[in-house]
Design brief:
The complex is a heterotrimer of chains A (about 100), B (about 650) and C (about 500). Chain B has 27 helices and four strands. Chain B has about 650 residues and is mostly helical. In chain B, helix 1 packs antiparallel against helix 2, helix 16 runs parallel beside helix 17 and helix 16 runs antiparallel to helix 18. In chain C, strands 1-2-3 form a three-stranded mixed beta sheet. Classes of the chains: A mainly alpha (about 100), B mainly alpha (about 650), C mainly alpha (about 500).
Chain lengths: ~100, ~650, ~500
């Protein structure tokens, strides 16, 4: 039985919203990054879904790009967090507000 | 020599520059004095020779123009530096350089020992330079240069002793007052010039005067031109209401008072109106204004002069009064009589001032006549010449003042009306009163001065000028003997000057024949007898019974106070005009309008930007999640908009 | 002989000279000063060459040079320069005053000499560029370009409130300039509808400007004029001037008053009037009212100032009110008067600021009440001060009278203004000028010496006299024989009037 495409898309949307909510709400910087990964992976899911339902591999190819970028971005982001932690000794985003007015 | 008339202007300029640049290095007073006086003496010779050359010309060709170069040229305006030699400028030139020379020589003695001796002569020469420009100019603008220039010289000379006090303020304040009040008059003069240019298209005397009859100009315009020019004359010649600078001008050294504020600068207004006689002839309403202002000023100033205690003040008010007479003459169309009085007044008023200067010099700068008395035996020459001048100014025949004043009074009756004559005659009586009051207080009676003053006669360099002016005051009137005594066409002076005023006289169509000789002799006698009576009366109250004078001042205390304080005119001007202007400018214009309103608006704009920014900057919280939230919202909104518009 | 490269040389010399100045070592101060002086004198000599080769009988622009700069099929912006009689006089004024200013600041500017000299040279470049540009885009560049050196000069070497003063000056002027930029762009785009391409060339725009319908033209005129009015300064946009003058160093004040203010009036003559003639005639009465108010207001406020520099600053407002009145009277006499008065104001107010600067160097105070009685201590100085004051008062025989008289008599007979009242009120300004200047002179020079510090005053030294004498020579020259200078601007002034109200039937010469 073929599952209609809608279910996959809705799943991705929900994952994406969870990720967005996580980014906006969570205080811990690492959790924020996890949420960002969640968002990226929801985009991946969408891409794979379409690849499967359109019958070509373009979507899957694009997933490779996204995963690479996600990895790089995670590496750089975690490096920044480490640098920040060494200076401010906290990972609470609300307290990292030096670049303000 | 007439072609070299510009030398009479150039020589004083050279004297000014020479003494100005090198005077402080030349320590020898004689050299400075000789150069200073010599330039004027030479100028006098040139004017005198030009005078005789002019006499040799036929009567209707007695105007020579000497054109030097183009001064201002823009659009239709073409002003030359050109000098006009005719009867009027020659008589003024003779007075200025002649009396000027005498006063310069006197100054060598008067200013002896002053550490700025050279500066004095430098400024005096500057004055003569400007005055000669004024009287020789062939156009209004060059005249105006001289006009303002004599104002400048007056400023420099009144404030010559710049660190001295003078009455309630300083000499510099007096100088500033003179310049500014003059400038108020100049404002009127400028407007007159502009209107002349607009109406006649030129500012050259010959061109304007010939167009007066040719162009069809409404009387209203002539009235305005004449009025504006007269305002200028009021300022320069100290008439009501701009006379207030002249008494304060006495702060300057006495030769300055003699030359500038008696003989020459103050007569510039008279000269100017005489020169523009044709314009005034076409504006009879303004001529009436001139006459009324003149006669009222004459009376008003004489009343003040009667009670002043400072000898120079009396003479200052006397000058204002005599100038009033000259304007009265001009106002009734008796232009020659006005100029005649300029001449005789130059003689006797300069003499009076120089005599006063001698006295002040000898009394160690004390100018209060209450501290004088009995000086005649110490200063005989000064006394005698002062007496001659006093007789002249009182109008006692056969001295010069009699002929000129009488001419004015008679013409004010025949061309004007009885009221003019009456006020003028009464003022003549007052004149005799105040001038002989000086004579009796100073030279006669008991000696009231302290014993540390040793009065003596002044040196020859000062007495010879006195004697020269004395002779002129005595016999100077004989060139203008009225036709009453000399027969028809016998008034040499007015005949000689007549061609200059011919057009004006024709226009005014003055009717001169309606009064009998008897009336003339009657009126003449009334004034002479009145003057003699005044002289007798003064001797009575100041010489024989000095207490009477004091009794009068106590009995009419309020009037006395009013006159002594010159009707409080200065105080009124100060309170009504000067102080409000200064306070108003400071508080309202500067502090409120400029700083609070205009600048406030500018600063407000800046503050507004600042305030708005300080509110908006709060958006930058620095918390990354807030930025992310805003971004999300933006994306959502954008998506909505796109979806909705599809 | 028309060497059309002369103007470019005129601009290149200060440009290269200024840039090369940057390579000097900071501490070689005297060398820098001499080099700056050398450059400015060289510029002056080039401007003299312009003067001697100028043809007095031609009315249009001479020494024209056009180089296409930004040129595509739709946009033509060129490097177009040229001068006429009016700009020639102002160029001479600029190149004449700059070396004198540099010489006068020899001892008063002691730190960062290199920066100061560099900025002065760049300022000169900007001013000269404004006077020679015949392309609106080029003009705008130079107009803005001279703001920056002035900002630094006031901001670094100025008095205690210099930051406030320089920022105010900069922002105020820039605000007006931005509106002018809008108008320039609008005008250029409008021109494209007639020419087929966007052009900012002045000569072409002269033909197009008068054809613009009045409802648009009015706004363009106002935008241009607002910018110039701020610079002049015209009441009520004048409040930046007292602050800028008081806080600027003496040399900066001299150039500010001497030349920068004239750029505003020059702009009126070169751009506002010929490009938008109908608007000029329409707005003339209103602007003249502001000018006359400025004359009287400036004089009255000057009368109650206690700081000499502020007094002279307000007097500039009054004097330039005369110039604006003369410009909008649109008669030959008034226009000539306005042009010569621009030069006169530069000389006499420049002299006054120099004199104030000299005495300030010695006493470090500008309050009149602190002075008094210095006549016997510094006699040479007081003579110069007297002549400068008399020139400012407008005494006949000195330069101020020539300008004022021509302006007043021209505005009296002006048909564009149509009323005598403008002249009557403006003429009362001559009374007020005497009041405030004599008050200042008396407070400083006459009376007894009240402040014991004054006894130690030294009179002017040779360098200072050397700076003043050339200015005073011209003050007297223009006063006695102004024809030399009136001749230069006569045809150009007439040309401007012709562009605004054609066929005036005015006698020319």
């Amino acid at each position: 039985m073929i599952i209609p495409i809608d279910y996959y898309l809705v799943l991705s949307a929900f994952m994406f919203m969870v990720g967005v909510t996580g980014v906006l709400i969570r205080r811990n910087a690492i959790i924020v990054f996890m949420s960002i990964e969640l968002m990226l992976n929801s985009a991946n899911l969408t891409l794979v879904t379409f690849s499967s339902y359109m019958g070509n591999s373009v979507g899957q190819l694009f997933v490779f790009f996204v995963m690479t970028v996600a990895a790089a971005e995670a590496a750089v982001g975690l490096a920044i967090i480490i640098a920040l932690f060494r200076n401010k000794l906290t990972l609470n985003i609300d307290e990292i507000n030096i670049l303000k007015w | 020599m007439t072609n070299l008339i510009y030398l009479t202007v150039l020589l004083p300029l050279i004297g000014f520059l020479f003494n100005g640049f090198f005077g402080s290095k030349i320590k020898n007073e004689k050299i400075i004095g000789i150069i200073g006086s010599g330039t004027i003496g030479l100028s006098f010779l040139i004017v005198a020779i030009s005078f005789f050359q002019n006499l040799a010309l036929p009567v209707d060709q007695r105007q020579t123009i000497v054109n030097l170069f183009t001064w201002l040229h823009a659009g239709g305006l073409n002003i030359q530096v050109g000098y006009q030699v005719d009867q009027l400028s020659l008589v003024m030139g003779l007075i200025v350089t002649g009396v000027g020379f005498i006063i310069h020589v006197y100054s060598i003695g008067y200013m002896h020992g002053d550490k700025s001796f050279w500066r004095f002569f430098s400024y005096m020469n500057l004055f003569i330079f400007m005055m000669m420009n004024l009287i020789l100019a062939d156009n209004f603008v060059l005249l105006f240069l001289g006009w303002e220039g004599v104002g400048l010289s007056s400023y420099l000379l009144i404030g010559f002793w710049y660190d001295r006090k003078f009455e309630k303020s300083t000499t510099s304040d007096a100088a500033k007052k003179a310049f500014i009040v003059n400038r108020i008059g100049d404002f009127g003069f400028l407007l007159g010039m502009f209107l002349i240019y607009l109406t006649f298209g030129s500012l050259n005397f010959n061109e304007v005067f010939s167009r007066v009859a040719a162009y069809n100009v409404p009387t209203h315009t002539f009235d305005l031109i004449a009025l504006f020019l007269f305002i200028g004359a009021i300022g320069k010649s100290a008439q009501i209401p701009l006379y207030i600078w002249l008494p304060d001008a006495m702060a300057g050294p006495t030769p300055v008072s003699a030359l500038i504020h008696a003989a020459t600068m103050v007569t510039a207004g008279v000269y100017m109106i005489a020169r523009c006689s044709i314009i005034y002839a076409y504006a009879p309403a303004i001529m009436t204004v001139v006459a009324v202002v003149g006669v009222l000023t004459a009376f008003f100033a004489a009343t003040i002069g009667m009670v002043q205690n400072d000898i120079k003040k009396v003479l200052a008010y006397s000058t204002i009064s005599q100038l009033g007479y000259m304007f009265l003459a001009l106002g009734v169309g008796a232009f020659s009589a006005g100029v005649f009085h300029v001449m005789t007044h130059a003689f006797f008023k300069a003499l009076l001032f120089l005599g006063a200067g001698a006295i002040i010099h000898v009394m160690h700068d004390d100018q209060d006549m209450r501290n004088y008395g009995g000086l005649k035996k110490y200063m005989p020459v000064t006394y005698f010449t002062f007496l001659i001048a006093s007789l002249a100014i009182s109008g006692i025949p056969p001295f010069s003042g009699f002929f000129s004043k009488d001419a004015i009074l008679w013409d004010s009756f025949t061309n004007g009306n009885f009221t003019y004559w009456f006020i003028g005659a009464f003022t003549a009586v007052l004149t005799a009163f105040y001038i002989f009051r000086i004579v009796y207080l100073t030279f006669e009676g008991k000696e009231r001065f302290k014993q540390d003053k040793h009065p003596h006669e002044v040196p020859k360099v000062m007495t010879i000028p006195l004697i020269a002016l004395g002779i002129l005051s005595a016999i100077g009137g004989f060139i203008g003997i009225p036709e009453l005594f000399s027969g028809k066409g016998g008034n040499a002076f007015s005949n000689w000057l007549a061609p200059v005023f011919k057009n004006a006289h024709e226009r005014l169509a003055l009717y001169s024949g309606g009064h009998s000789h008897f009336e003339e002799i009657l009126f003449m006698s009334i004034t002479v007898i009145g003057a003699i009576a005044a002289i007798w009366y003064v001797s009575h109250i100041y010489l024989k019974n000095p207490e009477i004078a004091n009794a009068y001042s106590k009995k009419f205390k309020r009037t006395y106070r009013l006159l002594l304080n010159k009707y409080f005119v200065d105080e009124i001007y100060d309170a009504a005009i000067v102080k409000p202007l200064i306070r108003g400018s400071e508080l309202i214009l500067w502090k409120i309008t400029d700083i609070k309103i205009i600048d406030g608006l500018v600063n407000f704009t800046a503050k507004l930007v600042g305030t708005i920014s300080s509110k908006i900057r709060k958006i930058q919280t620095g918390v990354a999640q807030v930025y992310a939230l805003v971004m999300m919202l933006g994306v959502v909104l954008a998506l909505f908009w796109i979806i909705l518009s599809l | 002989m028309e060497n059309s490269y002369l103007i470019t040389y005129l601009l290149i010399v200060p440009f290269i000279g200024g840039i090369s100045l940057l390579f000097f070592k900071k501490n070689k101060e005297n060398l820098i000063r001499y080099y700056g002086l050398f450059i400015s004198i060289l510029t002056f000599i080039i401007s003299l060459l312009l003067y001697f080769n100028f043809d007095l009988n031609k009315a249009g622009f001479q020494f024209q040079y056009h180089l296409p700069w930004i040129e595509t099929s739709s946009v033509h912006i060129g490097y177009h320069v040229g001068i006429d009689g009016i700009s020639l006089l102002l160029i001479l004024l600029t190149t004449f005053l700059t070396p004198l200013t540099l010489l006068s600041s020899w001892s008063s500017i002691k730190n960062k000499v290199k920066g100061f000299t560099f900025f002065m040279i760049m300022l000169e470049l900007g001013m000269l560029g404004v006077f020679v540009s015949l392309d609106l885009f080029l003009f705008y560049i130079f107009w803005e370009a001279m703001l920056i050196p002035m900002y630094f000069i006031i901001g670094i070497w100025g008095g205690p409130r210099r930051i406030y003063a320089s920022v105010k000056f900069f922002l105020y002027t820039m605000f007006g300039s931005l509106l002018m930029l809008v108008a320039i762009i609008w005008l250029a785009v409008y021109a494209s509808s007639q020419l087929g391409y966007i052009s900012t060339d002045l000569v072409k725009l002269y033909k197009i400007g008068p054809t613009i319908p009045t409802n648009i033209q009015y706004w363009m005129f106002l935008a241009f004029t607002l910018s110039f009015a701020i610079k002049i300064p015209l009441f009520p946009l004048h409040t930046w001037l007292p602050d800028a003058h008081v806080e600027a160093p003496a040399a900066g004040s001299v150039i500010l008053a001497g030349v920068l203010l004239k750029m505003g009036t020059y702009g009126l003559l070169r751009f506002s009037l010929p490009l938008f003639p109908q608007s000029a005639v329409y707005f003339a009465p209103y602007i003249s009212v502001l000018a006359v108010i400025g004359i009287i207001y400036g004089a009255l406020v000057a009368m109650v100032q206690k700081d000499i520099k502020k007094l002279v600053a307000y007097s500039s407002v009054a004097h330039l009110g005369f110039v604006v009145l003369g410009i909008f009277a649109l008669t030959q006499e008034a226009m000539q008067g306005a042009v010569i008065q621009m030069v006169n104001h530069g000389l006499s107010t420049g002299a006054l600021f120099l004199l104030v600067g000299f005495i300030y160097e010695r006493t470090h105070t500008r309050e009149i009440s602190e002075y008094g009685g210095i006549a016997k201590i510094v006699p040479i100085y007081v003579v110069f001060l007297m002549i400068a004051s008399l020139s400012s008062i407008g005494l006949p025989g000195l330069n101020g009278f020539v300008g004022e008289f021509l302006i007043l008599i021209g505005s009296f007979k002006s048909t564009v203004l149509g009323s005598w009242w403008y002249t009557i009120f403006a003429a009362s300004g001559v009374i007020l000028a005497a009041v405030y200047l004599l008050r200042m002179y008396q407070g400083v020079v006459f009376g007894k010496v009240t402040n014991p510090k004054m006894n130690k005053l030294t009179d002017l030294n040779k360098r200072e006299i050397l700076v003043l004498v050339p200015i005073f020579i011209f003050i007297v020259w223009i006063g006695i024989y102004p024809s030399t200078f009136l001749k230069v601007s006569a045809k150009s002034a007439h040309a401007v009037i012709e562009q605004v109200i054609p066929s005036q039937n005015v006698s020319l010469k």
